[in-house]
């Protein structure tokens, strides 16, 4: 269906949600400036009890921007961030934007090989990294444009009592210290960068809203990692769309738990831009640990929790075991994977709040559809289009042909949050961005008469596990590097949490008796943990097309039939 002339889904919008959004012509970092003006001495960030006010956060961003400028970072330069959730991540993100430079987000758990591909592609000359992975980043940067590494010690952001406790000569303190910080020989220190910088001139030009703000690496719709180009305007638009989607929010009074990683498109928008836009206090967790999250409830109770289904399930289970009251959580937004109805029902019984499912992709900043934050929500669907967002359901072979309601086809979206294209890949951009600004999502959906959309299949071959995208080609390349592996095909099979698990089918070299566990070990040496196959199946061959391409869909069908 085309939705340019008529938007039947508007009737489902929660009361007070307008049909369209006005995106001002300002840079993204204007969100922080406005928040500091409005909320000054209120708490912006909380990291294990150490707090930063909005005024202090703005000052730290100015100091960090000046420090990066002194290193030579200027407009258009790419700056890699390789950090877990921490105050320094928030500061670095907005400091890079303030200079008109481009943030490039990376998972700090990537191997050097994974990082190398992305650093080489982006051309980042400076990286701000967690000191524990500084060595891996330096190794990954060999042969690329990377020249400067700035190391961040997470413990410096902790309350002074916790920092003192980490110095105690006790095994537990030593283990915690080693988990949070490590040596970074040859790297500049983040704290020195801020301390030694000269003040940033208030007249430093701001970037334009159409300038590139972020390169976010994704498998896209083809499974090959590439940088999605997101401008200040596209990211700002999605923050504004998200704000209007939840009309019951109280600006300056909400508390958002950042259990989603900030380096992921979902966590970045909900926690780095949306949260700043509404002046919410952001509680930062370096990684998801249910007990750490529940320990924080007594300090600052959450009111808004964006997460993925396994997080809601684990928190509900652990809160019941510990007797922790989560009734403060009025809103939950679930994304990145299908939300089981049972999970939503259990969470809503536990909290008394609403848990709704949304849909998006990195190329759309990332949210495009969501269930209404009201009793009109429809479990099992991904909801209706966001404000100022249009959709079409089209024939998969002929995207110019629209399909009637109820018929399965590829979802196309258009809106102010849609990306500009893939970094330096015009041909791949042309394949997904059609005339009129329509983006091919690669997802097969049905759409009801009143505009509710249900995902039924994916034409793209990405594997979504734990809310993260895994490119099959990456897993297959890692497997082929294992001695004795002649060929490999990675697919996603249903997992117990409602998402997918990475499963690898391999063919051995002639005369080799492959050990599946050895293949997994070899993959673990080359891949981040969530990409490592949960299961390896050794077979005699892989199904191929007439031109020799491995047919992953048939691999998937074979494995399912054997289970």
UniProtKB/TrEMBL annotation:
Family matches, as InterPro entries: AMP-bd_C, AMP-bd_C_sf, AMP-binding_CS, AMP-dep_synth/lig_dom, ANL_N_sf, ATP-dep_AMP-bd_enzyme
Species of provenance: Aquipuribacter nitratireducens
AMP-binding enzyme C-terminal domain sequence ranges: 474-549
Record-annotated AMP-dependent synthetase/ligase domain positions: 32-423
Protein name: Long-chain-fatty-acid--CoA ligase
Molecular function via GO: ligase activity
The entry's keywords: Ligase
The keyword Transcription belongs to this UniProt entry's keyword annotation: no
SUPFAM superfamilies: Acetyl-CoA synthetase-like
Signal sequence bounds: none
A Pfam entry, by short name: AMP-binding
């Amino acid at each position: 269906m085309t939705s340019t002339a008529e938007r039947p889904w508007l009737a489902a919008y929660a009361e007070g949600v307008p049909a369209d959004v006005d995106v001002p012509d300002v840079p993204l970092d204007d969100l922080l400036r406005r928040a500091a003006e409005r909320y000054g001495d209120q708490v912006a960030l909380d990291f294990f009890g150490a707090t930063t006010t909005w005024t202090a956060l703005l000052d730290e961003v100015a100091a960090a921007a000046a420090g990066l400028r002194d290193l030579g970072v200027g407009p258009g330069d790419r700056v890699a961030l390789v950090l877990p959730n921490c105050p320094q991540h928030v500061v670095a993100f907005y400091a890079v934007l303030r200079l008109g430079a481009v943030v490039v987000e990376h998972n700090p758990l990537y191997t050097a090989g994974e990082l190398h591909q992305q650093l080489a592609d982006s051309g980042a000359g400076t990286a701000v990294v967690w000191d524990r992975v500084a060595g891996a980043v330096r190794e990954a940067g060999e042969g690329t444009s990377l020249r400067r590494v700035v190391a961040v010690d997470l413990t410096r952001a902790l309350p002074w009592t916790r920092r003192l406790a980490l110095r105690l000569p006790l095994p537990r303190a030593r283990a915690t210290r080693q988990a949070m910080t490590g040596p970074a020989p040859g790297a500049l220190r983040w704290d020195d960068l801020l301390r030694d910088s000269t003040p940033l001139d208030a007249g430093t030009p701001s970037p334009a809203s159409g300038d590139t703000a972020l390169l976010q690496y994704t498998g896209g719709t083809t499974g090959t990692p590439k940088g999605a180009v997101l401008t200040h305007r596209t990211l700002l638009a999605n923050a504004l769309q998200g704000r209007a989607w939840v009309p019951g929010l109280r600006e300056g009074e909400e508390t958002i738990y950042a259990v989603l990683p900030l380096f992921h498109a979902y966590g970045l928008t909900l926690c780095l831009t949306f949260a700043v836009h509404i002046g919410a206090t952001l509680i930062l967790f370096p990684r998801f640990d249910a007990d750490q999250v529940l320990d924080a409830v007594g300090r600052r109770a959450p009111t808004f929790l964006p997460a993925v289904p396994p997080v809601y399930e684990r928190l509900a289970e652990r809160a019941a075991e510990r007797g922790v009251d989560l009734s403060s959580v009025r809103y939950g937004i679930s994304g990145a994977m299908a939300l089981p109805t049972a999970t939503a029902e259990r969470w809503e019984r536990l909290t008394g709040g609403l848990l709704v499912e949304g849909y998006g992709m990195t190329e759309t900043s990332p949210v495009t559809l969501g269930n209404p934050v009201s009793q009109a929500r429809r479990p099992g669907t991904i909801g209706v289009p966001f404000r100022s967002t249009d959709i079409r359901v089209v024939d998969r072979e002929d995207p110019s042909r629209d399909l009637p309601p109820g018929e399965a086809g590829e979802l196309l979206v258009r809106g102010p949050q849609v990306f500009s294209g893939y970094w330096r890949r015009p041909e791949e951009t042309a394949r997904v961005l059609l005339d009129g600004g329509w983006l091919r999502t690669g997802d097969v959906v049905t759409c009801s008469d009143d505009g509710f959309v249900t995902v039924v299949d994916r034409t793209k071959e990405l594997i979504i596990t734990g809310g993260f995208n895994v490119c099959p080609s990456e897993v297959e390349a890692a497997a082929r590097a294992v001695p004795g592996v002649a060929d490999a095909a990675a697919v996603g099979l249903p997992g117990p949490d409602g998402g997918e698990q990475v499963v690898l089918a391999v063919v051995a070299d002639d005369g080799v008796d492959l050990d599946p566990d050895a293949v997994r070990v070899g993959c673990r040496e080359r891949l981040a943990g969530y990409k490592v196959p949960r299961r390896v199946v050794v077979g005699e061959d892989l199904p191929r097309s007439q031109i020799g391409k491995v047919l992953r869909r048939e691999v998937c069908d074979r494995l399912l039939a054997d289970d």
